[in-house]
Amino acid sequence: MSFEIRGEFFNIFNHAQFMNPSGDISSSSFGNVTHARDPRIGQVSAKFVW
Predict the structure, then answer these.
(1) Selection from 44, 36, 38 nearest residue 4 by Cα
(2) pTM for the full model?
(3) CB burial class (10 A; 0-12, 13-18, 19+) of residue 44?
(4) Are the CB atoms for 12 and 40 separated by under 8 Å?
(5) Contact call for residues 33 and 16 (beta carbons, < 8 A)
(6) For every residue of the chain, which 3-state class applies, written as one string?
(7) Digits of tens for pLDDT over the chain (50 positions)?
(8) Calpha distance 37→21 (Å, rounded)
């Protein structure tokens, strides 16, 4: 028998991570950064094996 606990964290320091700017020439937001990636995310899981 064994028991495993696991934790994963993404963007743990919560720094802004911007997406690429708009590349559509016909758009009014051409060249502007309008989105950012998700903020800090964490998850914990546990597994018991017998």
Answers:
(1) 44
(2) 0.48
(3) exposed
(4) yes
(5) no
(6) CEEEEEEEEECCCCCCCECCCCCCCCCCCCCCCCCECCCCEEEEEEEEEC
(7) 999 999 999 888 878 888 888 787 887 878 888 888 878 889 999 999 99
(8) 13
* Residue position matching structure tokens 């950012």: 36
- Separation between Cα atoms, residue 43 and residue 25, nearest integer Å: 40
How many independent structural domains does the chain possess?
1
Residue 32: domain span: 2-49
Question: Tokens at residue 26, please?
Answer: 């016909």
